[in-house]
Each structure stands twice: as structure tokens, then as C-alpha cells.
Amino acid sequence: xxTLNWRNHAAISAGFVLSIFFLWLALRQVDGVSLRKAFATVxxxxxxxxxxxxxxxxxxxxxxxxxxxxxxxxxxxxxxRATNLGALANLIFPGRAGEFVRxxxxxxLSNSSLLGPLASALIDRLIDVFVLATCASILYxxxxxxxxxxxxxxxxxxVGSVIGLxxxxxxxxxxxxxALISRLAKRWLQRWPLKPDVFLAELRIEFRRLLGxxxxxxxxxxxxxxxCADYAAIAALIQAFDLSLxxxxxxxxxxxxxxxxxxxxxxxYVGVYQVAAVWALSFYxxxxxxxVAIATVLQLTTLAVAIAMAGPEALGIFxxxxxxxxxx
Length: 328
What we know:
328 residues, 78% helix, mainly alpha
């Protein structure tokens, strides 16, 4: 087994172990009767609204990716297909494999190398990190939060700030900062059939193009719309369980879920979402069974939306998942 394959298997195994641990952490406060009662209170009409908001968010993410890549609107269909398949793959395969799926899919659909799709996809994910860090900082200063929630928000803020600083250094300067970032990127690029130096040069060009043009304003607008769609989805889900929480509660839950999804985990973020919901909603004295039920319904709704958006191509993703399990 090659060193790279060993690392991939180790990362996947670590994800499953982490998910099992988080699931135990969330469920140790839950009994079966309370969990069944929590599921029984759910309002399916509001769950349907949640699904609609998630669909809008997925569509907007595809638009944002196209804008980052600099393609014309006539190419939107390819970006939507790649985004939808990537979202579904993230829910079925461990280790955020959907990121690979969407990049490879776009490269095939646009008859291009992996260079452009990978660079634009990386910038797309960095924007999500910046939005997460911004929301975490707002919550950190605005809420009289507990030590547990405060520590998590502080971590999100620090990580986002460090990544933002690295991006600015990489895009604007050269020398020691560039060498450091290049070394870090080369380790990450080992799994891709690309020359790291060529990719980093392309990435720098994309950063400078976006930071120095009106596109940065358009991207801020799209990122805001995506955040609003995600907020509406989670707010509807909270209402679906007949909870009356402050308007900031969905944002707090979103921050914990978004940060949790960046961790290595089993498919569908099992365990990670549950413990994130329990910790975030504990600030509002929401019981653990209800929090676990909210996270689980969100996972199932997200999966249903991803399957519907991917369409017939979803069958291919499922077949590959079954094949990998049978041969792995």
C-alpha cells in the first residue's frame, strides 16, 4: 500500500471513530422514549419549507462557483450538475469526497484540466470559511455565552482569521510567506494529478482577479444570500419542532453545524451534527433528545434534497458507494 493510500485509509478510519465518539457523546443524554416524542412533534410542512430553502442554497452555491471560475452564464448547467453531485457524494462517502467529485465532474463537463476547477473550488470553500468566521465573531461578541460555546466560537474565529491572513499573504506578496504556503499546499495536492507549482500560480492569478475587481462585491452578495437560505432552512426546522427561540438561535446552530462538517467524519456527518446541535442548543435549554432529533431530520432532509437535485445521476453515486463498500 502506498503512503498516500495509507494516509487516506487512516483519515477515513479516524473520521468513523470521531463520528462514533460524537454520536455516543450526544446520545448518552438521550433515552428512546424522549427521542420518539421529539420526532412525533415535527411539523412536516415546515420541514418541506426547510427543504426548499436548502435547494435554493444549493442553487446559489453553483452560481457562486461559476462566478469565481469566471465562466459565462451559459455554462451554469455544468456547475449546477457538479455542485449537486458533489453535495450528494459528501453525504454518502466519508472524508468530504464530494469535493473531489464536483471538481472532477466539472472538469469532464467543461472538457478542461483539473487546474481551473480545483482552484475555483478551493476559493469557493475559503469563502465559506470567511463567512463562518464572521458569523462566529458576531456571536462571540453579541451573546452572553457559556464557556463551552464561547471556546468553540473562539476557535472558529481564530482559524478563520489565520486562513484569511494566509490568503492575503499568498495573493499579495512573495518570498518567505509564499514559500510557506506553497509547502503546505504541496502536501494537500499530493492526491491530485497536478504540478503544485502550476496550480499555485493559477490560484494566485484567481485570487488577484477576484480581490481586485467588482466580482468581490458580487461574491459578497452571493455569500450573503447563501447564508440567508441556510438560516431560513434551520429556522424553519427549529419552528418545525415547536420551539420558540431568539432570532439568533438558528445562526448559532448553523455555525456549529458548519464547523462540525469540516471535521473528518462518517458519511452524512453522523454523530458530528448530533453533538453540534446538542451543544449549540443547550445555550437555549433545549433538551438533548430534541436537539438530536433536529440534527437527524436536517440530515435526512439534506440527503433528500441532494438526491432530488442530482436527479438520475444520483444512482451512479450510490452504485459507486456500494461498489467501494463491497470491494473495500
